[in-house]
Amino acid sequence: MPLITRKLGLTDYQTTLAAMQAFTNDRTTATDDELWLTEHDSVYTLGLNRKNVRLPQNKIPVVNVDRGGKITFHGLGQVVIYCLIDLDRQQLKVRELVDIIEGSIIKLLAQYQVTASTQKNAPGVYIGEQKIASVGLRLKRNCCYHGLSLNIDMDLAPFKAIDPCGYVGLAMTQTKDWNIKESPQYMGQVLLDILKKKLST
What we know:
Blueprint: E1 3-11, H1 13-26, E2 33-40, E3 43-46, E4 62-64, E5 71-74, E6 78-86, H2 87-90, H3 94-110, E7 117-119, E8 122-127, E9 130-140, E10 143-151, H4 184-199
């Protein structure tokens, strides 16, 4: 089955969430898997693990969402890729898909001589102790949606108003801080290509 990629440009978060949910609800065994590349205006998303979450005291909207995890921030200059994947057809377990997503981000950064890694029991990608990418998924009938966000060239200040992904004091970083001068659009396309190749083999 082909893996379709869609470049959506700048999208409204809640509209895109509703589209992902509708796609997943309506899909059949004949529905192609898709990867959606997008960017969002400033928004906090609060996952299903909402207990003891420190909420931001600013004017940026907070949206309750149905992925796992706690709270994170999306904003301009951040690459977002949503993974609409039938895990049964891909013969993947969710942990294996997370490994593929994280591995794709690590491979992208390695192309710029930036060494990144994962941390046990803390999904996402890190450079040292700083987090550069987040991963959050939701399964329905063993088909997943939601996906990844990778910080490229954005205002990181809104992360300071929360405990990112539930971790107090977690420092966030972005590719711009590591002398990578590529735009979010370029980095998004390259990451999309890496991810598609890994999922198509």
